[in-house]
Amino acid sequence: MSSTPHIQAVETLLVDVPTIRPHRLSVATMNHQTLVLVRVQCSDGIEGWGEATTIGGLAYGEESPESIKANIDTYIAPLLEGQDAGAVAQRLARVAGQVQGNRFAKCAIETALYDAQARRLGVPLSELFGGRVRDSLPIAWTLASGDTARDIAEAERMLDLRRHNIFKLKIGLRGVREDVAHVAAIKAALGSRASVRVDANQAWSVTEALDGMRGLADAGVDMVEQPIVAHDKLGLKRLTDANIIPIMADEALHGPRDAFEVAATQAADIFAVKINQSGGLRGAARVAGIAEAANIALYGGTMLEGAVGTMASAQLFSTFGELAWSTELFGPLLLTEEILQEPLQYRDFALQLPTTPGLGITLDTARLARMRRA
Ligand code: MUC
Ligand code: MG
Fold first, then answer.
1. Residue 190 and residue 180: Cα distance in Å, rounded?
2. Bridging pattern class, strands 350-352 and 270-273
3. Which ligand 1 atom sits closest to the C-alpha of 201?
4. Beta-carbon neighbours within 5 Å of ion ligand 2
5. Which residue among 123, 247, 268, 318 is buried most deeply as judged by most CB within 10 Å?
């Protein structure tokens, strides 16, 4: 007797991977990233993978890798196991009805369910989100060693490798003037060969931001990301209205409701769309749709995911009609360990999208079994 495939098991793995160098943000210095990987196994033999990440434990978001795993294992997995695997929207509606918040955990689950369903249907994941308008995505690199000379050398290497010609500089740990001098030196060294942007990760007050924005605009910087605290949307609007340099909202966007508020008041020029921040792929697609309706430009953001979350993001971003500020899906390149059988393809300043079903990647499960936390 045939029956619809059902979800047999939902498993979560914590995998700690060292970074290639300390990654210094205003909120945390990362020496490793913790990948929360979710594997959904179905009765038809198909499995799907998803991933959640955050940055610096609880420094960036209100979910930690450990809370994500605990909440999936304890509360979300039991809502899914034994249920129809093909009715993904119904599975997610049940989770949404029973679980408040937990955007990152929900993102990992949603990704795994859609990966399995796309594999089942024999199509790339992007087909479930309307289909691709591009087969590769330009990728920015983040310079965050904290040292000006080291950052310039790193940028030169990336240009030589033809891997990145867009650089995002992490600032906010030093004084505003010192940060502006650091950024201006890097922009002067790279000139018109690269686009230079900055991300203060909420470090500035509104007055510091206005001061910093003037110096950065004079230095030839192209945009400033989330200069002030996430909840201050009126402050963000003041900075955008000042019209000194394009302003991008990042931490201000915890999904479609925030996106609507920022869009309705035209409080930003650009949205950093992130699948984890948006509570999943569908949430991120809605954030992008709201931006599009409000004539706000798009940037494909990262939570420094490993290969699974990076490819999930890439599959979705490939469907966006407009992606004026490119993407920053470099997460796997910041990590010292490969978890795929075939690494993601970065070349010609872009990430190449696979055409195979689902996420289009194959995990090295033997390696993961050795690397996962006991
Ligand atoms: C962020 O705030 O944008 C993205 C790139 C990076 O280096 O950090 C992340 C987080
Ligand atoms: Mg940011």
1. 15
2. unpaired
3. 2
4. 199, 225, 250
5. 268
User: What tokens does 351 get?
Assistant: 């990430």
Tell me the torsion sign for CA atoms 167, 168, 174, 177.
positive
Encode pLDDT of 72-94 as tens digits: 999 999 999 999 999 999 999 99
**pLDDT beyond 50 at 1:** no
**Is the shortest distance between the CB of 51 and ligand 1 below 6 Å?**
no
Ligand 1 center to residue 304 CA distance, Å?
Answer: 7
- Which atom of ligand 1 is nearest the CA belonging to 330? 5
Ligand 1 mutation target, pool 171, 304, 305, 329, most atoms within 8 A of CB: 304
Mind listing the pLDDT tens digit for each residue in 105-117?
A: 999 999 999 999 9
Whole-number Å distance, alpha carbon 302 to ligand 1 midpoint, is: 6
